[in-house]
Amino acid sequence: MNGRTSITRRLTLLFVFASSAVLLALGFVIASSVEKHFEQQDMEVLTGKMELAGYALEKLQSQNDLERMKQQLRNALVGHPGLDVSIFSPNQTVIFATPGASAPINLASVNARRNPHRPFTWTIGESSYRGIAAELSTGIKEQSRVFVAVSLDIAHHQAFLRSFLRTLWLFVAVAAALTGILGWAAARRGLAPLRAMREQAQVVTAQQLSHRLPLESTPVELAELAQSLNDMLARLEKAFHRLSDFSSDIAHELRTPVSNLMTETHVALSRQRSADDYRSILESNAEEFGRMARMISDMLLLAKAENGLGTQAREMVDLAAEVLVLFDYYDAVAEEKGLRLVLEGNGEVSADRLMLRRALGNLLSNGVRHSTANTTLNVAINTNKEMVSVCVKNIGDTIPQEYWKRVFDRFFRVDNSRQRSSEGTGLGLAIAKSIVGAHGGTITAESMIAVTTFTIRLPRGTDASLTPGSL
User: Fold this and answer.
1) Which domains does the chain have, with CATH numbers?
2) Which one, of 134, 73, 254, lies nearest residue 65 by Cα?
3) pTM as predicted
4) What is the pLDDT of residues 444-454, one digit of tens each?
């Protein structure tokens, strides 16, 4: 057992508890109302007989009138089974009592003095009674005050209430059971969309990442969840395809140099050669190994940049100073091609200095490599209130517009031959994009009429955290 409870079970229990609580509360209200109704009925009878007794006592003029009063009371009680009247003097001498009168004289006299006309109850054996008592006046001078107690047997009322409560509890139990069954059915039906989503999710595999949960048939309460799952599947699909493409590109890029090394080595071993021949072959192999080492290093840096693992603490970086340092580094190569390196503008940005220098260096390296000889490579830095932009512009072959976004893909080359040049690994622009993305910025490419421009835009803020970029 893992301690987990299904939603269906929890909803069913909530239905049972809620309905039982409501039914119990309703039952108590009904029982209380019925009991109150019986009490009011009893009080109407008791009060009426008390008024009749009081009227008869006021008419007494002498002891001779007592018999007439007793007969009058007996006649008034005909047809009222369980109703008794007792009249007794202050010294508790019984003056009149109906057969079977059960009102205790002590209790009646106390209530007559303290709580006249207020009901009180008592029990004798298995029978219960309700009565009222009062001190009334008579017309007899020798006995001007007497106590009168009127009582009523309420055993039949209590029997009815007991039967009603038994029926009520039985009804509550049956209703709770039915509510549990109906609640379980309702919960099962209400959670059917979740089961449908589960079945749809089970269809998703590595070979079917394009599958999406249908939003049209999804209830409003689950629409956001379904959309979030679809967004997650879209990200997984994109990442999976990117990983597959990356693996394919790695295999393709490493296959050529490994094949060259194997071929050159087999040729070298095919017959005896001079020491100079072996030296030449080893130097060629060492150059090829160097390219492979740079490619592996760039792949590792790219992976770190994409996940924000290669970034260090930020500091304010003078972009113009960083570009001038890179100009010095590429000065020899630029001079060989007759390129003129020009810097315009200045600006500061909060960034990881080494990582940002690597991104700028990759753009300059790309620009120098693809510039037409005897032209100008221009770097322009522009600053506004929130952003700093760095534009690297060179003159060379025009990049078709459909490739402007793809040039930042790993190992992508505009020419379809995909043959690797001796100067690069095909990862420079991808690394630049990941580094810029890790700093919360963007990088774009444009190429029109032989002029290609790469633009980096970075936020100037000093408190933004480094975030992993996405390709």
Assistant:
1) 7-174 (3.30.450.20), 312-459 (3.30.565.10)
2) 73
3) 0.51
4) 999 998 899 99
